[in-house]
Records
---
Amino acid sequence: MVIIVETDLLGLEISKGELRRLTGFDPDEVFRPSIMRDQSKRLGFISNELMVAFALTLLIVAFIYIFLILPTIGTSIPLALTLLITVPIFVLFGRWFWRRKTCPKAVTVLLDEVDRYHTVIHSIHINDQLATSGNKTSHIHDREKVISALQLIREDLVRALKTERILRDNKELLANNQELFINNLSNLQALQVSQEASEYAQLLNQSLQIAIDVQAEIRKLQSQR
């Protein structure tokens, strides 16, 4: 079965590559409490962590055993087993601590907003599929306004991520980048839908809430100057 995606949705998604470029972090490597509340994401995150911990444990244990234990005390199975138990614990804790130390809270908050933004896009895609299969949908004008809102939110999300990165890397640059603090919230609030109870009205309300939350985060960043 071929899944048709409307062309106006194709440019809305913020890819992992773009997020990596904007933040300097791999989005899949950033620990966020929201991930642990989502079963599918939680399982994927934990599985990835366990695989990484297993691989690092083998390398660390092999290095310690071959280059430190064997030359000094010789073969020791109990000590090897102890290393296999304790090293992964230290690896997992070390990775968690390193993430908390190196990844700013603002990045985790904004990445959560990106996830919410992508959820709205996915909802529109599902509505489009229902419409093409013969189900009734909201007025096309409502859909177009939600798309317009998402385009504005995308700009704000990218702007917020750039702002955080500049603050983190070089605060002095802010004097020449005041446009990064401009947001599209007033334009978003000007958008209205024809049916307040429609599916697209609900999606627009979700989009407005994302915009408000992103603006709040931008203000927090601005207060750090």
---
Amino acid sequence: MIKIVGISGSLRAASYNTALLQVAAETVKDIVEFEVVTINDIPLYNEDVENSDGIPQSVITLQEKVATADGVLIATPEYNHSIPGVLKNAIDWLSRPPKEIPRIFSNRPVAVVGATMGGLGTALSQAAWLPVLRRLNMRPWFGGQIMISKAHNVFDESGKIIDETVQTHLKQFLDGFINFVESNNTKKHTKNIN
């Protein structure tokens, strides 16, 4: 069974992006191992801290979750038409030290989704992630998009999706991404045995 790690880019307790990942995990629970993680314990990056104290344990834990996953699903909010600082900060920490980038990120399948109360559905934030993913040498999947706008009308108070069209679209998106991850996993396995 393949393993996907879903990283929520919001610190808010009632985050629509965390809810989106939780719904995704529930949707595919019978076919993949899907773990939703948060970045709540990741400190602000400070090279002085890295040099004096090393990599924080919360960062190491998340590094290992990503490094052992077959694919990564990032749920990004959109702040001021771009990437949220807390999520970029977490990814910056995960890339430390730079020699760890190949082990943690390189060729790992990734997709970016997002939910917002605004009208653009995190389109600008998702686009802003592309240079970062390229730098980390990840393998973005472009076969579908999940950009939920007016999220307060899509989710109920418990974090469940109440819009059937969105739920159907999410299922189709997840099926496509899982196929992409499985294809990548098969290629890696074939390469290893040759």
---
Amino acid sequence: MFVTFEGPEGAGKSTAIRSLATALEQAGYSVLVTREPGAGSFGKKIRALLLEQGDVVPEAELLLFLADRANHVETIIRPALASGTIILCDRHADSSVAYQGYARGVDIDFLKRGNSFATKGLKPHLTLLFDLDPVVGLQRIGDGRDNNRLDHEPLEFHRKVRAGFLDLASQEPERWVILDATKAPDALCADALAEIQRRLSR
């Protein structure tokens, strides 16, 4: 089962993923926690390029994300799926559509075709959207932004990202589940776990 976690900055995805992995492993499942960008040695190099300060045109930014995604899917995600592992992925293809498409203005149809090319058509079985007002999310991360270029974009950029995620979720309600990321971490994790267990029981 391939589960992706999407949402604006500071929504609590990474914290929830760690707790979910522990809960699923205790229930007897094999679990892989991964992320985009930054999985594997190749991904780590691309992540360093993407998140460092400096001017990068949207087209170059997108192509780096797609290169990371293609390698990630082929060398990490597909082998894990074939072995029956549950994959918990912090960001995936939908982030490119929200950030580079809705927020940066890159053609969304082109983005979706690029994602399909990079993943060879692979799509998540479940996408959990940790929805949060970006004002709150940016306050949460505060000084812990770690020189991440995307964190330092203006508020209007992050509002467009959130709107993009919500629009994508409305287009594929069978795949997406919207979670209230204003909840306490334990409650948010419980909601996410319930959705994963519901899919596993099908």
